[in-house]
Design goal:
By secondary structure, this protein is α+β, with helices and mostly antiparallel strands. The protein has 4 domains: about 1-25 and about 85-120 and about 320-453, no CATH class; about 30-85, no CATH class; about 120-220 and about 315-320, PDZ domain (Pdz3 Domain, Roll), CATH 2.30.42; about 225-300, PDZ domain (Pdz3 Domain), CATH 2.30.42. Helix content is about 45%, strand content about 20%. It has 12 helices and 18 strands. It has helices at about 1-30, 90-115, 135-140, 160-175, 210-215, 235, 255-265, 320-350, 360-375, 375-395, 400-415, 420-450; strands spanning about 35-50, 50-65, 120, 145-150, 155-160, 180-185, 190-195, 225-230, 245-250, 250, 265-270, 270, 275-280, 285-290, 295, 300-305, 305-310, 315-320. The strands form 7 sheets. It has a 4-stranded antiparallel beta sheet. A 4-stranded antiparallel beta sheet has the order 10-9-13-14. A hairpin with a 2-residue loop joins strand 1 and strand 2. Helix 9 (about 360-375) runs antiparallel to helix 10 (about 375-395). About 30% of the residues are buried. Belongs to the peptidase M50B family.
């Protein structure tokens, strides 16, 4: 239920802001607005205010602003000056452009608000990179603290959290660029410069697994045991909460993530194999034999020891002041807009997977998750979707705001509007393209929910 309510709230806010942009500029240009609708279909609620009827309709997947227009309904002679089609070209373009721009402006404010509130995020101290990954080849090690990043080695940008680091890596990966990292040990000593060559991952699907493919997994967590279940494999082996694991089968344990992987991979031919653990307890080194238990069946079977492995990563409060927050909001909105266009371009040229396209089910899922994480996380998610909606509507596709802007560009260059015949066929083509995109996005959503992506 919370996921559904979060999705409806997200969609409602974005639709209202988008349509209000059209409405406000239309009124400023002297256009009579007949209806402001949130949703489509059967009207659930209505209120008349002046010349405009405000309604909420049954299907919440969008909205519209209906303006007085001689091409749609007969217009009385004394009202022709208030009709949309009789306004100058620049005013019509401004009214159409106002919707997407309202979404982008909202994104700036939402990102700023999220940064003003602040979020508790993991410090950019990294766990052990995956074997053979880009991160390992670059020289990253468990416990490295990434202090700053640079695209050219000259201009460096401080990194406050793992989230910011992943954002920088994602941008560089999409652009197929090399990213330089300034890293030190966890105490801030022994600073060195490393290079992530991200050209090989350019065009790959941008999802949670992208960081794993690059080699940037979970934040660093010390290989220390937490709660140990009674009568479980760990308890029977004599392990206790607070034990630090040094080695497993004579192989050093770098962090908790590596230890969890070793435990899970202890199954051979469907049978968990015993493991020799070297641990540190109150300054003493002990060696214990641990017999994991089997969890699951078939090829998905893994080993378990029934103990919490790892300590929570070190957290930092990421918060900005009023001016810095606005600057950061504008910068993040621009970066997300550019990345969205880059990804769309790569999907069109086949350089990126169409699996990156998401639909309402994925948005609803992420909305519910972000709400559960707190207000600032939800505001950041709302800003991300608002940017996507604004950029999508600016695409030069018929039926979208960008398509109408293309009509006006043609009119401005030729001195005549697009013919009715062309408009009819362009609208049909645009509807078909949008239908295909929606179908693809929905199929991707279902594949994600079923674990097929």
């Amino acid at each position: 239920m919370s996921t559904l309510l979060s999705f409806l709230l997200t969609l409602g806010v974005l639709v209202v802001v988008h349509e209000y942009g059209h409405y406000r500029v239309a009124r400023a240009c002297g256009v009579k607005v007949l209806r402001f609708s949130v949703g489509f279909g059967k009207v659930l609620w209505r209120r008349q205010k002046g010349d405009t009827e405000f309604v909420v309709s049954l299907l919440p997947l969008g909205g519209y602003v209906r303006m007085l227009d001689e091409r749609e309904t007969p217009v009385a002679p004394h009202e022709r000056g208030e009709a949309f089609n009789n306004k100058p070209l620049w005013q019509r373009a401004a009214i159409v452009l106002a919707g997407p721009m309202a979404n982008l402006l909202l994104a700036v404010l939402l990102y700023a608000a999220a940064s003003w509130i602040g979020t508790q995020e993991a410090k950019p101290v990294l766990g052990a990179p995956a074997a053979g990954s880009l991160a390992e080849r670059a020289g990253l090690r468990a416990g490295d603290w990434v202090r700053a990043v640079s695209r050219d080695g000259t201009d460096w940008e401080d990194v406050a959290s793992v989230t910011e680091l992943r954002w920088q890596v994602t941008q560089a990966a999409l652009a197929g660029e090399r990213l330089q990292l300034m890293a030190s040990n966890a105490q801030g000593q022994a600073t060195r410069t490393l290079v992530l060559d991200l050209q090989s991952v350019a065009g790959q699907e941008v999802d949670a697994a992208l960081m794993q493919r690059i080699g940037l997994g979970a934040p660093y967590s010390e290989p220390v045991l937490g709660e140990v279940k009674s009568d479980g494999p760990a308890a029977r082996a004599g392990l206790r909460a607070g034990d630090r694991v040094l080695r497993v089968d004579d192989v050093p344990v770098m962090d908790a993530a590596g230890l969890r992987e070793r435990i899970a991979a202890s199954v051979r031919n469907g049978v968990p194999q015993p493991m020799r653990w070297q641990i540190e307890r109150r300054g003493q080194t002990l060696e214990l034999s641990v017999q994991p238990r089997l969890h699951g069946e078939g090829p998905r079977a893994i080993g378990r020891v029934d103990a919490y492995v790892g300590q929570p990563p070190e957290m930092v409060l990421v918060r900005r002041g009023p001016v810095d927050g606005l600057v950061q909001g504008a910068q993040r909105t621009w970066e997300v807009s550019v990345l969205t266009l880059q990804m769309m371009g790569r999907m069109l040229t086949g350089e990126a997977s169409l699996k990156n396209l998401s639909g309402p089910l994925t948005i609803a899922d992420y909305a519910g998750q972000s709400v559960n994480q707190g207000l600032s996380y939800y505001l950041g998610f709302l800003a991300l979707v608002s940017v996507s909606l604004g950029v999508l509507n600016l695409l030069p596709l018929p039926m979208l705001d960008g398509g109408h802007l293309m009509y006006y560009l043609f009119e401005g260059l030729t001195g005549r509007p697009v013919s009715e015949l062309w408009l009819k066929w362009l609208q049909r083509g645009g509807a078909l393209i949008l239908l295909l995109l929606m179908s693809l996005a929905l199929s991707n959503d279902l594949a994600r929910l079923l674990g097929q992506h």
